[in-house]
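Worked example 2:
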Amino acid sequence: MSELTFIGLDVHARSVAAAMLNAGTGEVRICSAPARTAELLPWLRAQGESVSVAYEAGPTGFGLARACEAARIPCLVAAPSRIARAPGERVKTDRRDALRLAKLLRLDELVAVRVPSLEEEAARDLVRAREDARSDLMRARHRLSKLLLRQGLVWEGSAWMQAHERWLASQRFEMRGLALAYGEAVAAVESVRARRDALDVAICEEAAKQPWAATVGRLSCLRGVSTLTAFGLAAEIGDWQRFDGRSIGAYLGLTPSESSSGERRRQGAITKTGNGHARRLLVEAAWQQRRPASRASRELAGRREGQPAVVRVRAETAGRRLQRRWAAFDARGKRSTVAAVAVARDLAGWCWSLATMDA
């Protein structure tokens, strides 16, 4: 410990601020470091034989952490949301941030983010590209429907079904500007939908390959968890073994916040920490648990086909228990949105159970 030098890096695309803290002498030195990883690694080696590095997770990714691991330089990627900051602090600079990282690294007060493999990161990018396409499609549809609403045209049936699409194609406008705007809005919806469908096909193809196939196959046995959802959860969470049935809910931000003092215990909304993409997938899947699980649908039966009996039995047990949980919330008069989050937390535990089981 006395010979170790702790280095905090505030990493940006074109600049890196570095703070070096000598554990033996307590000497602090702050300077600028090379921004390119190829130049930064030799610079880190030049700071001494025993160095430990930390930087915050952010848009620059995990390339520096992987390079440090290859060069056998200890490197910790810190979770920004878990870094302590004084309430009254109003001055924030890159150098101050780098110094704070160095001090917290020495005290072992930084919470590390797991560095995903290149394969996992590529799968995450694919899942999030599909998420972006879904959001773009929703916005394009809203723009189209609001354009029609301004003209007094409202569709009364189920939206975006075949009948609705035929109704949209039949709309004609005399004003040239309005006709052009409507045509562009319809084309935007069709373009984004084609992009989303292409990504769906790509995800299904990736889900059938290793190392995803086994985990996705087991998760897909759950009601409300399609191949797209299962692959998204597998890609976002990565290593399921680092959790247990309780801790995975806290990791995904599905546990209630708490502010307790003395004999008073007060719980609030969920923390919403951790992976927001996986949390959204679980909440969407939780809504499907509300209806009674009388028998498996044809699609669900197809997903369960070929899976071991123990996996199918556990998935059926999960469906019954989650549906009873929904029924209990409804009987107590709980808001459906609150019940969905609570069921999503339980569903996360069942997903962990299936992902980590040996079958």
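The CA atoms of residues 104 and 323 lie 45 Å apart. Strands lie at 5-11, 16-22, 28-33, 51-56, 75-78, 256-258, 267-270.
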